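Q: Start with the shorter request: fold the first protein.
A: Done. Sequence, then structure:
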Amino acid sequence: MHRLLRTFTALTALAALGFAAGCSSGSDAEKTAAVRGPSTGPSQPPQNAFWVDPDSAAARQVEQWQGEGRAQDAEVLRRISERPVALWPAGDNPAPDIKAATAGAAEGGHTTVLVAYNIPHRDCGQHSAGGAGSPEYYRSWIDGFANSIGASPAVVVLEPDAVPHIVDGCTPAEYHEMRYQLLSEAIQRLKRQPRTKVYLDAGNPGWINDANKLAEPLQRAGVAQADGFSLNVSNFQSDETTKAYGRTLSGLLGGKHFVIDTSRNGRGPLTGDRQDAWCNPPGRGLGTPPTDRTGDPLLDAILWIKRPGDSDGPCRGGPAAGKWWPDYALGLARNAKSA
C-alpha cells in the first residue's frame, strides 16, 4: 500500500459488539477457525477483545522455527503470533476466510477484525494493484462479505487508501464519483449486519497532512453512516501524531470516532525525504498491542490492521505485496515498542 488504521459511552458501544473483556495484506495466512489456547511462556499476552488466528503465518513460523532449533527466534516472534491481527479476505470469494474466522472467534467470545480491500482501480496500479473488475462485481463482493459476517461481532476497516487516493489525485478523476458511490453503498450494506462496526479509511497524517482536505471527500463517501474512520493503516506514524490528527479530523466530521493501526509504528516512520519510506522500511518495530481499552473517548480501538511481517511489495528485497516475509517479521518483533 502507498504511504502508507474510553469513556463509559464508548466502551458501552464496543461492548455491544462483544468487545468487553502496497498496504496490502493477502489472505493466504487465514486458514483456520479455532482460537489459540493460553500461552504458558513468558510472552503470554493479556486477555483481548479481538480474535487471534492460531494458524496465522506468524504462528506457523513459530512452530517451524521451534522444530528447526531456533527457539529464541520463535519466542521473539510470539510477539506477533499471539496478538490479534486483522484478516484481509480474498478478492475472489471472501466467504471462506470470514466464516472460518468468525467461527473461531465465537468459541472465545471474541470480535473479528476484517479489512475490505477490493475497490476497483485499487492502489492506483502500484504494488497492491487490482481489486474488483467492475462496480457490479464489487457490489456482489461486498454483499458476500457482509453475508459471511452474519450476526457475529466484527470490526470492518473499509478500503484502505481509497479516499486518500482521490484526494492526492492518484486515482484518475473519471473514477471519483463511482468510488464515492461504491464506498457509501458498502457502508450501508455492512451496517445491515447487527453487530458490525465500520471504519472508512482516512490514510495517515504523513500523507494528507491537512485534515481539512479529507473532510469533504469522507463525507461524500458516506462516513456519516459509518461508525467512524481508520488511520495509519500499513503506515508508521506515531501513536500521538496519529491520535492528534484523528481528533482534528473528528472535529471536522461532527465528532466521529476512529481506530488506529499500530502494527509497525513502534519506532516511528523512516526519517529523511524518501519517496519509498512506506515500503518495507528497515529498522521498524511493532507498536502498541491491540486493545479496545484506549482511555480516549474518540479512539474506539488500537488495532494491528496491517499484518506485521507481510510485505508492502517487491522493494528492499521483499516478496510481492501481502506475502509473508519471516525475516522482516522477526525484525519488527525484535524492535517491538513493548519489548
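Q: Next, the second protein, separately.
A: Sequence, then structure:
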Amino acid sequence: MFSKAYQTATQFTHPLVVSTRFYDKTIETGLGAFIIINSDGWLLTAAHNLTTLLTHQKHAEEINEFNLRTKQLEKDNLANNYQTYAVPNAKWITNFSIFFSGHPINILEYHIYKENDIALLRVDKTAVKDQKIFPTFINPSTITPGTSLMKLGYPFIEAKATFNEQSNTFELPLNFFPIPFFPIDGIYTRNINQGKTADQSMDILFLETSSPGLKGQSGGPICDTNGTIYAIQSQNLTFPLGYKGSIIINNQIIEENQFLNVGIGVHPQIIVDLLNKHQIKYDMV
C-alpha cells in the first residue's frame, strides 16, 4: 500500500543528528528527521529537535557571566586573603552541532515555533543542490479522518558522537551513514486543538494517527499512500483503555492496565500557514 509513498518520501526525507557537549564534558546525541522543502535551501523539522540551538545561546551568556564572576573572585581572593569560588553548572552546553544528512551545515535563517513544535530553517542552497525531488503538501481543506498514513524516519538506531578536542568538532562513527529508513503505518483519526499560542496569533493544532511515531521519526513526514505530506511527526500520546489484561507468572495472576499509544503530527493547516507567512515556495495538491 505504501510502496509509492516510501519511494517518494525517502527522496526528500533526511537524518538530523544533534550532538551536545556539556560543561562536565559529557556528550549526548539525538537522531531525528527533516524534510527539504525546496531548492532555495528551506528545511522543515520538529521544533523540539532544535531545543539545543536555543538553549546553547542562553547557556553561552551564563558561561560568560560565570567566567567574569570567577575572574572577579580571583582578584578579591588575592586582595583579601580568602577563598571563595563561583560554582559552574555541569550541564551548561558548551558545544553543539547539527548534522544534516551527515554534514554540518551553516543555518542562515530559522523560525522556531515551540508551541506548535515546528521549525523552518534556511541553509545555503548549494547544500541542497543535489536534491531533485521535493515534497507536495496536502491542501488542509481536503483532509478527512480515516485516511491511511505512513510515518517515516530513523528509529532503532543509536547515534553516539565523540568530541575531537584538537579540531573542536564532533565526530560520528565511521560508516554511520547512510542510515536505513523505517516506515510505520496508521490512519488519520482526528484533530487535536490545544487552543491559541501565547501571543494569540495562531491555533495550536495537531493531527492524530492511530499508531505512534517512533523515536527517530520526529520531524519526519506523515504521508498518504501517494507520498503527499499530511503532517510532521511531533510526539505521542497514551490513552488508558479502561480495562486490565492478565497473565499468569509463577502461578500468580498479574494484572496490568491497558493503553493505546497514538501519534501526533503538526497539522497541515499550521504548516501551510507558516510557509505562506515566511513566503517559502512549496507545492500543494
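Q: Describe the second briefly.
A: The chain is about 20% helix and 45% strand. The radius of gyration is 23 Å.
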